[in-house]
Specification:
The complex is a heterodimer of chains A (162) and B (161).
Chain A lengths: L1 H14 L5 E7 L18 E6 L5 E3 L2 E3 L3 H10 L16 E6 L5 H27 L8 H10 L4 E4 L5
Parallel strand pairs in A: 2-5, 5-6
Antiparallel strand pairs in A: 2-3, 3-4
Chain B lengths: L1 H8 L11 H15 L9 E2 L4 E2 L3 E3 L5 E9 L1 H7 L4 E4 L2 E3 L4 H10 L10 E6 L5 H13 L4 E5 L1 E2 L8
Parallel strand pairs in B: 2-9, 4-7, 7-8
Antiparallel strand pairs in B: 1-4, 4-5, 5-6
The chains are: A alpha/beta (162), B alpha/beta (161).
Chain lengths: 162, 161
């Protein structure tokens, strides 16, 4: 009896995969509506991030390193109209990623991760200031309140097909 | 009197009873039987996920549909070449097959779960964004808007190699 049970036990031990799935979550914009008007966004409210096919990076028309993305995004969304180069206020701040068809996936994920990092840091700071707790410990309503103040507006330009 | 004490020292340690061993083994067996998730798809493409640290855990596996993107494994390289390909379930697919795939996945779920479905893109770290952008475009057209870029938990500097 015990032998059979052992055999089965070893079989299940070997076939078990206990991995959990992790990933960067994202919501795509709904399919374009032909009657929809294209909103006009002021240039100062857009932080332009470009990645070319050689995985090189440009932030607002100047070559940059991946380590700069987070700080630039934080400066952009927490500017509150002080610096004329950055956004008027967080609700209007847009981060725009443009990439080439030849850009590698890992570079894209790196850039995306850094932008999310910036947003998470800003939201966490706000949560600590307002409620004295980190963002993920807040209730749903409190989280929504902070999300409303610092919405994540990440636009992606569709790469041009040649 | 003295013989009484001597008697106790003899005989050595008694054997441990193994009567409860099957119970323990059965308990473990049931645990693993319940916890086991059988791999439901064969791997046709090589996928090495990129690293990211701002990740979320995907809790409900039954809501997730997987799209694999990567270079075909050696066995299939003769037939399908070394360019990154899309794998949907057990078959190689093209960008055109994504919409039927998503619709089929949607039909397999109960009505109330359908809006919660997530599409997980499991792409190799070295594929080009062109193919990913095509997939995203197709997903947008069928309104499968919740996506997840599967990645390993780790520092992004590990992506550079």
């Amino acid at each position: 009896m015990a032998d059979i049970a052992f055999l089965l036990l070893i079989f299940f031990l070997v076939t078990t995969t206990m991995e959990s799935m992790y990933g960067v979550s994202r919501k795509l914009p709904p399919p374009p509506d032909p009657d929809q008007e294209i909103p006009i966004v002021k240039d100062r409210n857009i932080l332009e991030i470009l990645i070319n096919r050689n995985d090189q990076l440009m932030i607002e028309d100047r070559p940059a390193d991946f380590s700069e993305i987070k700080d630039e995004v934080i400066k952009h969304i927490t500017n509150f109209g002080k610096n004329p180069k950055y956004a008027d206020n967080p609700e209007k701040a847009v981060v725009n990623i443009t990439h080439d068809r030849g850009t590698s996936y890992k570079t894209y994920i790196t850039v995306y991760n850094e932008i999310l990092h910036a947003y998470n840091e800003v939201r966490n700071k706000e949560a600590m200031q307002r409620y004295g707790k980190p963002f993920d410990k807040l209730s749903k309503e409190q989280q929504d309140e902070i999300k409303k103040k610092f919405p994540q507006i990440i636009a992606e330009a569709t790469p041009k097909t040649r | 009197m003295a013989s009484k004490f001597r008697k106790k020292k003899e005989g050595g340690t008694p054997a441990i009873s193994t009567a409860s061993l099957p119970d323990i083994v059965f308990m473990l067996l049931f645990f693993f039987m319940v916890a086991t998730v059988m791999r439901d798809t064969n791997k046709l493409v090589n996928v090495q996920l990129p690293y990211a640290d701002q990740v979320q855990k995907l809790e409900k596996k039954q809501l997730v549909s997987n799209i694999f993107v990567g270079v075909p494994i050696e066995k299939y390289q003769k037939k399908y070449g070394k360019e990154p390909r899309i794998q949907l379930n057990d078959k190689f697919g093209t960008v055109e097959d994504i919409q039927p795939f998503i619709l089929a996945e949607r039909n397999a779920r109960r009505e109330e779960l359908r809006p919660l479905m997530i599409t997980s893109i499991k792409a190799d770290k070295d594929v080009n964004m062109g193919i990913i952008a095509d997939i995203k475009e197709k997903l947008r057209e069928v309104n499968a808007l919740k996506i997840n870029y599967a990645s390993r938990k780790g520092d992004i500097s590990q992506n550079k190699e």
